[in-house]
Amino acid sequence: MTKDEEERLILVRRFKLRYRRLVRKAGWSLKDDLKPAGGFSGVFSTWGRVARAGISLIALADVVLVFVRMLPWAMKEVDVSFGDNGAIRLHVPGEKVEWMTGVAASKLWYNTRIKIPPGGAVTLEAWGVVNLAVHRLVTAAIDDTIPHQPWVGPHGVTLGANGADVPKKDTAREKLILHRKEGELPRYGLLLACLVPSNAPDSDRPGKHNPRPSKFHIYEFDDKDDPIRNSSSETCELWLVVNDVVLDEKNPESGKLYIETVKTEIEQSRSYTATDEFDNAVKTLEEEAGKLGDTGVPPSEKLMWSKILEILKGLRQEATRRKTAEQRWNYIEEKGYWDLWYDDNMGEFQVKCTVK
Fold first, then answer.
1. At what angle do helices 253-267 and 325-335 cross, to 10 degrees?
2. CB 293 within 8 A of CB 287
3. 282 exposed, middle or buried (CB, 10 Å; 0-12, 13-18, 19+)?
4. Gap between the Cα atoms of 210 and 338, Å rounded
5. Per-residue pLDDT of the chain (356 residues; tens, 9 = 90+)
6. What are phi and psi of 126, to 5 degrees?
7. DSSP three-state, residue 215
8. Is beta strand 236-242 parallel, antiparallel or unpaired with respect to 191-197?
9. Are residues 124 and 353 in contact, defined by beta-carbon separation less than 8 angstroms?
């Protein structure tokens, strides 16, 4: 609750309390005292009426005073505008500036374009849920099982927090988490923030080519309302991201860890056939079946050979589709697909940013 809302609530409560004590509790009203049966002069017919009328007038004056004090607040103008990147800006003249923005779970670092002046600070409030493994969510829904990665809020969760079994490959991927505190388990889905100078070169800015910006501090979202301060001498912009595993082209360990996790995934897949020997064998059988289907096969058996040929083609397509771990990594390097795991995320957080 903001300071203005607290002040308004106090005034309203004070008005109700005084009115009840001075008017309703006594069982009479100002109207009854000012207009008695004997006319206006009857107000002062007894000392009791005089006292009651006086108290009623005092109560009325107090109510008017409360209203007068609330009037400036009610007449304040709120300036509503949009920032460079779609964030909504709310500002009451003479008070702090508030921004409303969103950060998608699929975005590897998002520049809100919200500017923090030198010496200024920003506090964050966040709502919403995200899922960091959409393909598993769909599979779990089909199989009626608990998904390995649940829907999470801006505070994030650790693996297995929802009671689901943690796959071996996920344990290996923990080493690729974008951010984690030393000595603590990584929190998937945690909202992270970073202040980056507006004039910073592209090479220093966060993104898929620089997922862990070493020149700038990464802040974790919490409920302590701790401000994120701009201690630099330059105006900075607020960047946001959802914590997840990510590949880093600058880190040679990324390739090794990726290949390790993919190999683990391949070993757990019953239908995988990885060797080139199998691919060549299927190709040869396919060619032979095609020849037999054209010549030397009685018409009554052509249907059987056509079915065999169809099965062999399907096996070869499966072998081709499921590439080896090294081939997958070569594809990632060639395409620069460092944020591939972020493409498997869904949902967004709504974030309120208060600039002080």
1. 140
2. no
3. buried
4. 10
5. 666 667 666 766 766 666 566 555 455 444 454 444 444 455 445 655 656 666 667 767 666 666 556 555 555 677 787 777 778 888 777 778 888 999 999 999 999 999 999 999 999 999 999 999 888 888 888 888 887 778 999 999 887 655 555 666 676 678 889 998 888 888 899 999 999 999 999 989 999 899 999 899 999 998 677 889 999 899 999 999 999 999 888 887 888 888 777 766 655 554 444 455 666 666 676 666 666 555 566 666 666 666 776 776 666 665 555 567 788 888 888 899 999 999 999 999 999 999 88
6. -140, 150
7. coil
8. antiparallel
9. yes
Q: What are the tokens at 165?
A: 């079994």
**Locus of tokens 């880093």:** 248
3-state secondary structure 203-233: CCCCECCECCCCCCCEEECCCCCCCEECCCC
State the amino acid at position 15 in one-letter form. Answer: F
